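Subject: sequence -> structure tokens, single chain

Hey, anyone have a minute? Need the predicted structure for the following. Not urgent.
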Amino acid sequence: MDKDWVLLSKETKRKISAATWVPLRASQTTGNGLDVKQAGFIEEVFALGSVAIPPEHRELGDRLKWTDIGIGHNVLPCAYEDGYYSPIDQHQHNDKQPIGVELIFEHPQPVVGGKRWIINADLIVALRLVKDGNAWVRPEEDFVVVIRADIPHMNPQFLSTR
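Reply:
Had a minute. Here:
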């Protein structure tokens, strides 16, 4: 992998505060309040996942489907019998073929229940972010909010970045 791509050199040189919000991971369900068995039941689901894919793997990235990067996709580390190890942040096209970087990890909370979404530490460090409540801010740009969770307690249904 290219060092500048891993360090997000282009992204950290531009003003983040001038960028548009881009969802990184989302899961929202809205409806009309009727039971699924009632006539007139309406429900809309917005769900989104994301993976950072470098230009050299763009062709493979363009072929990814919802099942490859959506919220149903499990992001997990994997140890193979032959000794190969795939860390949690590598997005694998096929076994042992990393083509991108996972930006958000879903971490089930055993015993206490629920799930937490964890932002890739490389993203936080590369953009030099600091956590402030339910957001990550960039002190070098007047503490502009760069990543925000729209649900309290960082157990978000929606994570987005600028």
